[in-house]
Amino acid sequence: MTAYKNKHTYQRLLSEDDAHPPEHFGRTSGKRNGERSEWSRIHDLDQFFIQVYTYFNRRGLLCIVAEELFQLVQFVFIVCVTLVLTVATDYDFLFNYGSKEITEHDVGNGTIQQTVTFLYYGQSIFDAIKFRGLREDEAFALVLCLLVAGLFWLSRVIYVIRKVWEAFNIRRFYADYLKITDSELPNKLWSDVVGALVRCQDELSLCVEKEKLTELDIVHRILRKQNYLIAMQNKGVINHTYNFPFIGRRAFLTEGMKFNLKLVLFSDPFATRWQLRDEYKRSSNRVGLAERMSSRFFWIGLLNLILCPFILVWQILFSFFSYAEVIRRQPGTLGTRRWSYYAKVRLRHFNELDHELKKRLTCAYKPAKAYMDGFSSRIVAILGQCGSFFAGALLIILFSLTLVNENLITSDNIIAVYTFLCMGLLEC
Question: What is the rounded distance in angstroms from the CA atom of residue 138 to the CA atom of residue 145?
């Protein structure tokens, strides 16, 4: 581990003499065929190259619009269904729907009764949807949740409109200058797009700092902040290992934690997307900047604490609606190994784009899984064998009884029992 840390040596900024864009950086004065081009001397090359790569990675305008609209509709659907299930469903009517108790005949001194299911005339299962009166505290909680959901959805709509407009402009750039249409994009490699961008530099002067662009220049700008994050992880500046009660020291990183880290670490130090503030380049300001960043961590943490109940409820609902069908079709997916967010940060190389990382991790999945399977716990194997025995025994008993009397399949909760036993058998 010591040798690994010593291998990564990064230079600290000793002065504020940094490469600044020239004074005319930001003017759009390039021409093409005698006409002014909006893509010449781009002010924010980092953002521009990020948009170009995002357009490539998401496979065109139609896919971007479809994905963003689906996420908006998905959010509305989850909120509406949750609202109906919590405050607008008569569960007494729903659970007793279509059942009636009738007497068939007498046998000796007893009476045999049978429950049959049928549809009441003029009734529907949707009659169970009835808005009931709410207590004052319930109404307040409901209004608060709907208000937070509405504000989030409106902010998301604004974000989607902005992203779609940016994608529309990038689409014109792809078609006019890169000579790549949306129909051709799925069959193109990133190297094809980079080659076209390098050729555009000679024609449009996308970057005024250099006469020639290289693939490394483009990737540096796309992954500028990601490279900072990787460097801080390699040097131990950011530590994602924690001591948990009972289970000990474990590495832990979620998408939300990663988002908050980027928000705290990169929003204030960068005056623009590509340029650090001058005060961050002076070692004499280190103490004051550390206190300011500590304050930012506190306020971001407090905001997360306030929003924690809403985020937790949303995560539970989203996971339930997203994975319920997958678990029903493939119960074995519950125990499937996958790369953690910590692994994706820890194993990522400098200047490695998202699709390259995904491809490399996909290729490494089988050998990594085989390696992890070599560290199986004996006690876990014994418990799994025990659970598999009991689940299999009960399942074969129910299956045999169903063969003898097929009416058993209509008994209460028998389908749920079958499902849980099958899931337990597959997991064990």
Answer: 11
